[in-house]
Design goal:
The radius of gyration is 18 Å and the shape is globular. Helix 9 packs across helix 10. It has 309 residues and is α/β, with parallel strands linked by helices. It has a single domain, classed as Aldolase class I (TIM Barrel). A ten-stranded mixed β-sheet has the order 1-2-3-4-5-6-7-8-10-9. The chain contains eleven helices and ten strands.
């Protein structure tokens, strides 16, 4: 990894495990420990924000250059040495424990939650980069499950061949669909591969055959990809996901270098998009979280499937 990129990651409180993996404290972990606020994933799926390990096995490479991405980019596709899943997970958990050591010094810290936070129960494989580029992704998911942790994998869907052979599958698989058609896709996702849209379409066709919960996430950016509900609906019909999450772009991180705060839709805009999409698909708006600008769509009886044990 280039020294410049490594230094930037370190300044932003990423902590590396080996050459490719990283962990970073989630905003919502801080909020959960200090302010009794939590992530929409806790609201929707019962995932404790203070016990979530936000990580990536591939921090410095991706097949997209999405204009709305808040994460550190500077992607490079050079040869690298991959850590084993067991060693990677050990190192990342240890880094997270060190990152939270200062919280008890704040009078607001919930000490019961702090003690639980040292023992993560959920792994969000989503921090930065494209995780399906990691050659031992199945083994990483298996290692998490062996330790009694649930897993959410977030992918841009450009490596359907990886998802097709992935074993075991994550507890929940997210595919980001940030464009209703190929033209908008090229503008918003700025693929670094020539056939990204076609690969994403193959992933959507694959989803119904996978034996795990699936979610399509529509990241919505005002003036770029907000609207086109009928076209999004056709893509969702192809994927037949368990749930759909329309979620508003947030003007934070590196996205501020490319975007304007005016590109951030209000929660009302996201909710109205979600309701129109739900109507088109014959679905219900099951839940919403205003401070995260996100709504959840699914079948009328799907709410009983939301929570994880």
């Amino acid at each position: 990894m280039r020294q410049e990129l490594k230094q930037k990651l370190d300044r932003q409180q990423y902590r590396m495990a080996g050459e490719t993996a990283a962990v970073k404290l989630c905003h919502w972990m801080r909020q959960s420990l200090l302010n009794k606020r939590h992530c929409y994933k806790q609201e929707f799926y019962g995932i404790g924000s203070h016990r979530c390990l936000q990580m990536t096995p591939v921090v410095h490479d991706c097949t997209h250059n999405c204009i709305f991405c808040w994460r550190v980019r500077g992607f490079e596709s050079a040869e690298r040495k991959w850590d084993s899943p067991h060693d990677m997970l050990d190192k990342l958990i240890e880094h997270q424990r060190k990152l939270i050591t200062g919280f008890p010094g704040d009078a607001r810290c919930d000490m019961a939650k702090y003690k639980e936070a040292k023992d993560p129960k959920h792994v969000a494989i989503s921090l930065a980069g494209e995780p399906t580029l990691y050659p031992y992704l199945g083994e990483l998911i298996e290692e998490c499950h062996k330790r009694g942790m649930t897993t959410f994998l977030v992918t841009n869907g450009t490596l359907p061949e990886v998802l097709e052979r992935l074993d075991p599958l994550p507890s929940q698989l997210y595919v980001t669909v940030a464009a209703p058609n190929k033209y908008v896709y090229k503008d918003v996702c700025q693929p670094r591969i020539p056939d990204g849209w076609e690969r994403l379409m193959r992933t959507l066709e694959l989803l119904p055959s996978l034996g795990t919960r699936t979610v399509i996430r529509h990241t919505l950016v005002r003036e770029y990809n907000l609207g086109w509900e009928e076209e999004y609906a056709k893509l969702d019909e192809r994927a037949k996901p368990t749930f759909i999450e329309p979620k508003g772009f947030v003007f934070v991180g590196d996205a501020r270098q490319r975007m304007s705060i005016d590109n951030m839709p209000s929660h009302q805009e996201v909710a109205e998009f979600g309701q129109r999409l739900a109507t088109s698909l014959g679905l219900c708006l099951l839940k919403e979280k205003r401070d995260s600008r996100v709504v959840l769509l699914g079948e009328s009886d799907a709410e009983t499937q939301l929570k994880f044990d």
